[in-house]
Amino acid sequence: MEKENILGTEKIGKLILKFSVPCIISLLVNSLYNIVDQIFIGWGVGYLGNGATNVVFPLTMISLGFSLMIGDGASAYLSLRLGEKKNDEAAKGVGNGVMTSTIIAVILCFITLIFLPQLLTLFGCTDALRQYALGYGRIIAIGMPFMIIGTSLNSIIRADGSPKYAMTSMVIGAVLNIILDPVLIFVFKMGVEGAAIATIFSQFINFAINIFYIKRFKSTKLNRESFKLKASTVRKISTLGVSSFITQMSFVVVVTVENNLLAKYGAQSKYGSEIPITVLGIVMKISQILYSIIIGVATGAQPIFGYNYGARKFDRVKQTLKRVLGIGLVISTISFILFQTIPDKLIAIFGSGDENYMEFACLAFRTFLMVCFLNGIQIPSGIFFQAIGKSSRSAILSLSRQIGFLIPSIIIFGKLYGIEGILYAGPVADTAAFILATSFLIFEIKHLNKEDGKSETLIDDTSTDNKLKEHTVITISREYGSGGRYVGRLIADILGIKLYDKDFVKKLAEETGLAEGYIENNEEKRNFLDTLNSGYYAGLSNADELFIKESELIEKVADKESCVIIGRCADFILKDRKNVIKVFVYSNLEDKIKRATEIYNMDKEKAKKEIKKRDRARANHYKYYTEREWGDHSNYDICINSDMLGVEKSAEFICKMIKSKEKQKIKA
After folding, report:
1. Architecture of domain 473-667
2. Would you say 535 and 250 are in contact if contact means Cβ atoms under 8 Å apart?
């Protein structure tokens, strides 16, 4: 008997430690890049130098957004195509990812160099900061290609099964940055320009190490053809990675709004514009260390959540959630105590300033991070919902604090209370995000032990008296309420071949250890919020994993025997086979509503909404994985309105067409 996955048996504390440490290290290394420069600039140049790096910081975030979009997208594309056993397409995804990131990097570099003064103004730069910001920003712009390509490759290398290699290149870059910063700033007296040179040199080394890996890919072989751009591949990669881009851009929007309002209301206070911009930038970057640890713990726990939720081991899910939230709460509470008791010591790490500088720093730490201990609950919640397949809730929680709560709070409280109002926007946004996350968690925990809906796997009572002389596979795509599923069952009965519908759910559950209800809730469904999902980590979503596994099962049954396969993009997965007949069953809306009210006992209005919702989800799912339109009749061999002849006659008509085609083929 096959040994059960350790995710379902090993001690939870041990599992969290095993999976979380690499995530925490990677996230902390990224945070170090942002903080190290500011520490040495603060001591070597002063707080105006730090203020300058804060107004340049959105450019770095934009670069990171593009690099993650292409890197995470290409890595997901690689995994999907390898899962489909399409190695050439997988290589094409890697090559196109590298080329796309290169083109974007060069374009972004030139745009930044040409429009740097205007961009700095957009990001809240003041006259006092401009000289430092221009010097720092120009050098950072020159290094953008190394940063974007290197970071994109980092994600792809992880997906190729070499996470240690990817992490090592990041760590080497970070260590180099730490070494070069003091040398260039203090020894060679190069100021903010020295810090920028240290950063781009470190990024170049990371880039060079990752470029060297291209010839060592394990999962697929790259050649010149792999690097020829293909519009559909680039589009797919971008779609797969768009969530990471949106997450980064939300931070860009926050920092831009924040800097401009800090400059505006700071000028009306005794602190001036530059002190608030400098200090709050430092405060946010220090808090990012806190968030990195919490995100690392929660991301490391993701496979534990997902496996045990799917296997219906809800006690382990709750234990894991309790442990993760507990760790998050401890870390955020310790941080809260430090922010409230020694803010002067924390800001002193980044150099000294006058009395107003120190006063505002203490005020900012104590006010803006007043309820930061709540983040120990809010941040893991979004990752938890992603892990259990409820990506809409995950997307809402991931974006709610920054876009939904913080920006409106900054604008409203800034207008009402000036510079101090902006500081109070922090705890207001944290509290609102915590309340939303807690509400979602309470609702989920209450229903955690309830069945989400057992599989309605059809009993295979179809005849095995195969009336077909040729090996034939019939795929049935159908609109919700069209009777397409029943048409498929009747075709299987008439032809005496196997029907595969919800049997796939059972087979998939047996192979993965995931529960049938969990699989049913995650397959063939994709909505708009799935696209906006969390970009905290790189990897495949639940739906991606299920699509790969179902594709493998569909290929297996198509190899083995003649059969009818319902839905699940089977027409696309088997599109290159000559023995496949692709059928699409549709119906008029009124007829579908009538069928839904009779079969599912829905009222007409509910039936109408459900039909539109299900068809939209199926269309999105099909488009996402096939890059085709679900209802495009050119994708199918037979398209039939089930109400023209009725469900039974439609099935008979399709069977006659299949038999007729078989006879013609035999004669030929």
Report:
1. 3-Layer(aba) Sandwich (3.40)
2. no
